[in-house]
Amino acid sequence: MLEKILGDESLSEGFQLLEARKYERARDYFEKRLNQNALAYYGMATSLFRKSVDEGDFNEDLNREIIGHYEKSKELDGSSTDTMLMLGMAYERRINILFYNFRKHASVKTRDEIGECIEKAKESLEEAKKLNENYQSIVDAEIKTINRQGEIFRRLRWKKA
Which domains are present in the chain? Predict the structure, then answer.
């Protein structure tokens, strides 16, 4: 994705805002440029994702929005390593949100969604690794974390609510 960003001057201002950690301004910038542009969807999702991580925000609706933007970027350009990596990380964050909710209010729906998110996170991360083998160490570390989450999940899912 970065090689595409560097070659796409039309969105460079938004990515500069993102790198400067001006997430609100970056979000506003990308939101105005979404119009079926994979890079704009990626930038929008990344500005929301980074802001939520920095602020420790585990808002479920925001996480769904982030995943939706990464999914749209993937739909428009399935060859972006960065999109696949960040999509996997967004699903990993979703797993954490769902774990929290599952522990408070165990339900079959939440249990099933956790399982789906584990698979989607792994799929996205493996695809990132296929697209760019330089991502192997970060992908392997993320998958190791997801596998640990999966082990916890398997232990939790059989306990009665």
Answer: 11-77 (1.25.40), 80-161 (1.20.58)
